[in-house]
Amino acid sequence: MPVNGLVFETRGPVVRSAPNRADIACFVGFVGRRPGPLPALLLRALAEQGWTSPPYARPIDELLDVPVAIDTWEIFDRLFAWDRRDLDGRGGLGTSYLGAAVRSFFVQGGRKCYVVRVGDPGPLTEPRSQRLLRLPALLPGYPVRFDPSPADRLAWRGLGHLFGLPDVSFVCLPDLADLVAADRAAIEPLPSPPPAREQFVECSEPEPAPPADRLARRLRAPRADGAGYAAWARAVRLAADTLARFQREVQLVAAVPLPEVESDADHDLLRFLSDSGWLAGRRDLDLASVASAFVQLAYPWARTPGSADLAEQLEPPDGVLAGVLARSALTRGAFRSAAGVHLADVYDVVPSLSREQLTAPTAGLDLSDRVSLLGPTPGGLRLLSDVTTAADPWYRLAPVNRLVSVIVRAARTLGEDSAFEPSSEQTWADVRGRLGELLRALFQAGALQGATAAEAFQVRCDRSTMSQTDIDDGRVIAEVEFQAAAPVERLTVVLALDEGGAVSLASPRPTAESPA
Prior knowledge:
The chain contains 15 helices and 19 strands. The protein has helices at about 40-50, 75-80, 95-105, 130, 135-140, 175-180, 225-245, 265, 270-275, 320-330, 355-360, 400-415, 425-445, 455, 470; strands at about 25-30, 30-35, 65-70, 80, 115, 170, 225, 250-255, 260, 295-300, 300-305, 350, 370-375, 380-385, 455-460, 475-480, 490-495, 505, 510. An eight-stranded mixed β-sheet has the order 3-5-1-6-8-10-13-14, with helices on both faces. Strands 15, 16, 17, 18 and 19 form a five-stranded antiparallel β-sheet that branches. It starts with about 25 loop residues before the first strand and ends in a 6-residue tail after the last strand.
């Protein structure tokens, strides 16, 4: 006897990511929860992570403020109502910015991400005063400080979930530009067409229903004024400082908000950001500088099939950039620049930057020196630059920053293996040997420059890198010098292995040598 509606779904066991992967992203933002039961495999994974039982239990059925591992777009689509911009009917149909970003991540070549849903999207015409009240859901403690702590799992909310996701390399906040944008004028729904007059006709196919009024399409995309850019810069600065303190292997990939038409930012974005002080290296109490080796800004905004129901059919480019970086890490290596990589599925970028806007120097720099740009080339739309916002030019090349992250991730695994060993000559020799093997493999893969491995890198872990106090306290400190294949100075990275196995990273510093 046939049984309708019975579906057998076979899925593999829960598999943890390899700790040294450099392609996994985390998206934190607002999206609806699609009705329906959760897959058994997902419930099992959340239970294993402790999110279903006290003291860390969260609203699991709603997938609210828990990190959900996603390895295909189909899984995301099954779990989240990304195609409902406003669930209470006040704002009409549309795609959520988080949904568009996750879709672009997978289309561009990403293989795995985490999604942290912090709530439903607000109404399309919600005033900025109300939208800003939802920013702490992304960055708990905004705008003063970041409240979550690595040691207090009960406080892990929003971006704080990174503390429990050691395999993440990129983090995106796709709703950020929308939350800080200037207010938009309300748009009334289109009137319903008058009913057709009844008349007798021969039997025929029924007339199709009139298309739904996609209200979001008729709204302008979120655009920032001066106050909006200031709020955006504070959020980026807060996230960057958090990564610099606790998650140095993670890069914030953030979209630059669209500027108001005919504003200073619209005419010359680099000069506007520079004149506002947001690209300065200093960190005054009243200045939220976004200059950081842990920040990669993306611009302009993108049109894709996934953004068809967004305002002006535009999506923030952070999901696109994260997917391109993930694809490049998987196919070419995280240490190689992704500049020049083709943009799959993107058919337009807005605004269309003129040659003058791209190359006009500001303080000796052009826009591509500080922002990762998407744009047209004779071969189609591509990533034009792959840079961080760091004020120091030696840390501005994003692939160099990713190379340091690869080394630190591998060192963490090494630290776990040596956690219970005494700080002795034998342990130091083991650390030197393992770090040497890692760097030799990177040299053979083309990540390091030099005619020989000895020219490309050096590893020291002995009494010259540690004081007697370090040895007595059970700390093992290794110093790694390497010549990146990218045209930068030789970098020195100091890795400290604590008695508990934790690896900390001192700020990488260039030597006095000239750039290659």
